Amino acid sequence: MFKILKYSFYDLARSRWSYIYFLFYLLLSFVLLFLNNDLSKAIITLMNVVLILVPLIGTIFGVMYYYNSQEFTTLLMAQPIKRQSIFLGQYFGVACSLSISLFFGLGIPFAMYGLFQSAVVLNFIILLVTGVFLTFIFTALAYNIALSNLNKIKGFGYAILLWLFLAVIYDGLFLIALVMFQEYPLDNFSLIGMLLNPIDLARTLIILKLDISALLGYTGAVFKSFFDTNKGFIISFLMLIIWVLLPVLRIYLVSKKKDF
Amino acid sequence: MVVVQDLHKNFKKNLVLQGLNLNIEIGKTTAILGPNGSGKTTLIKIILGMVIPSKGEVKFNDINIKNNWIYRKEIDYLPQIADFPSNIKVIELINMIKDLRNKPAKDQELIKYFNLGKYLNTNLGNLSGGYKQKVNLLLTFMFDSPFIILDEPTSGLDPISLIKLKDYIKKEQQKGKTIIITSHVMNFVEEIANHIIFILDGKVYFDGSLKNLKTQTNNDDFEHAIANILRDNNV
Amino acid sequence: MTTLNHFLILLLALFFCHSVNAKTLNICVTGCSYNSIQKAVDEAESGDTLIIKKGVYKEFDITIYKKSLYISGEKGTIIDVDNKGYGFRVEATDITLKNITIKNILMSYTKEYAALFLFKSYDFVLENIKIEGAFFGILIQKSKDGKILNNIISGEGTTEANTGNAIHLWHSERIVIQNNKVQKMRDGIYIEFGNFCIINNNVSKNNLRYGLHFMFSNDNVYTNNMFNNNGAGVAVMFSKKIKMINNTFKKNWGPTSYGLLLKEINDAEIKNNLFEDNTIGINVDGTNRINYTENTFYNNGYAVKVLGACYTNIFTHNNFLHNTFDLSYSGALNSNKFEENYWSSYVGYDLDKNGIGDVPYRPVKLYSYLVNRTPEAIVLLRSLFIDIVDFSEKVSPVFTPENLVDNKPLMKKIEW
After folding, report:
1. Residue C195, CA distances (Å) to C124, C142, C170, C182, C190 in order
2. Which of A48, A168, A191 sits opposite C382 (nearest CB)?
3. Which CATH superfamily is domain C22-230 in?
4. Is C307 in the A-facing interface, judged by CB distances under 8 Å?
5. DSSP 3-state assignment of B114?
6. Which of C279, C376, C380, C399 to mutate to test the interface with A (most CBs of A within 10 A)?
7. Distance of CA A66 to the CA centre of its chain
8. What is the ipTM of this complex?
9. Could you tell me how many CB contacts below 8 A there are between chain A and chain C?
10. What is the CATH number of the domain that holds B217?
11. From the centroid of its chain, how far is CA C182?
12. pLDDT digits 0-9 by tens, C85-116
């Protein structure tokens, strides 16, 4: 698997898109920091971008890479390699390459603006870590979609729909449900609703460290115990890990049975 | 060497293989023939473990290939359409496959043989179809495995390269290798193969030597002999 | 007649003797006439001066009853109460206590032990007193016309139950509390039934409950104070005519935390204050006729949260800068008004260049309205969907109170 990972990674590392992605983040961070020398403000703005763009890029890259490397996959399938290794290797290759673009694209400007001497270094690390998690989650989801759809156009369509759903529509339905059932105790419901969407989860995780957590804890005892303690942080993190593991597990299972 | 028993495969409602039995003998060159959509490629892919049969089993050297991948170390496979990742150089692809198989390879010899020397640093996306096929052939033959599967090996090759390919296959035959070929170019098959398996609608319609085929169909011309099988079965 | 004359002469003589004989008593651990403060107090007469030389005095419940004394320590004068009771218990007029460190006051769940307990005392001065390990710091009951200056009071309490207040006034009037530093207590300064008090230039921080707390207290003024990192900055409850000017309310973070809590308040003035990094800048509940002028709200969760039953609260010339929510509002607008404020999230334009935006600003976002109705919706904070919803509401308001607008939003931050 590591050989495949290595080759997928190199393959992407020389692809123009990785550089565009990297340069985009580099530019974005520099502009943000230039306009507003306050690291902590820049992190909040960046959070909004990361939460929307990282999943989108992860989804598109994942689907694109799968379809683009189909012939190559066929070539590998005939080699004495375990078939699950091929897909997991490719998946990790894409996810790692995207993560590295993200990591350096955001990291270099912030480091140059004195991140390590500032108090927000932990917040920034949380932002990066959640960004990496989102990359892994959405690339895995995209791989799942691509594995289950032979038709490229369909696969792309579903992938974009999935992103749209999790990034926007889910929150809309969530909000409608909350408003409709406002007579009932909703604190557990809303926590669970939040945990079930990786984007919401990631956002919460960042907000928890951005000092706005008190605003969340304001709502009631359940929220207070969740957001005001490490409990919320740990649970959110575990959920993110589960969000990576489940799609990866499905890649493993599907690739075991799929015909090529 | 390869024993296929009662092999069935359907892609949803489309029945591709319906109870296929065959036996590929060691040291022989077997041509698997049949019209488009008869299930040749599916059969090969099942042997390679790329497609999973709905029913039945394949044994490679008496070992069931299900959930097994190590047996593929014994096989060199030439896929039908050689479409490689486009932004990677020929030499890199060669090195990569070598690295993946981790086995001594006679790549230098083959580069010379197929005149690929000056294209080694070209991206695969910029190669012509014929050269892609040459790279494909090189990747297949370089490991010198005892079992070779060639799916449409002649596609895209110019006459000179074709001759070179034939010569090469003949050399491999002399080494006693077991070879499976599919092709639509009948005189190529006639020249290379010594055993024919004819598949139609997912079943074996003929399994025997070239001579048998000719006598059985009362036809000295190979192409017509094949056509006869088709006609006899009202296809 | 003669008896009256005699009496007058006697009185005059008494007064004369007294002023002539005013003396200074020195107290030291060893070597002076007194080694006990209580003993010196007992033997002193009104008008006497007591100098407590430096050293550690293990005394408690030092009682001064109806004697006007001037008591001063010097650098290094420490009274260690050793968790046995009060520091001083005073019931006297015209009394001064200065330059003393008092330590380790007894903690109790039933009695309010204080380092300095003043009861029915008038014209007192408490100055430069340092209280460490206080249960209550300075506890003043039924007293008038006192000054509490330059004191430093700190506790070590961990819960509200085992901690008292640093400066606690009860049924007292005309007290000046100035230049004190109080921290790690329950309330920094607590005033119950206290009128006409002036609270100026104090620092109240890290207290478990409130930095400053008014209950049933009218006509008080607090100015130039710093309230930092308390359970809640300042709570003003059931009081009238309070002036709050030039104070800083900072970092009062926490699920139930505010910079300033107003409950059942009438006729107050809130001016030139800074509210920064609070969960809620000002929490307004049942207040009437309050002017909020020239305050800056920076980086709070909610700048202002209005809960209802409020009339004629006027917000003008305030800066609302980068708060998560500028305003949360329940109930009808009533006669409350928001006008000529600067809102950092205002994106309108000013074509006629008069410094006032040509498009009204709506400080209540749809999302803050929803969070008000369904508090759990806060989990969606900063979601893309919420931004979209807020944007569409801005374009065509449907849900947010229609008349809750700043019709003259300022284009530039206000300076004063």
Report:
1. 17, 11, 10, 21, 12
2. A48
3. Single-stranded right-handed beta-helix, Pectin lyase-like (2.160.20.10)
4. no
5. coil
6. C376
7. 18
8. 0.82
9. 94
10. 3.40.50.300
11. 10
12. 999 999 999 999 999 999 999 988 888 999 99
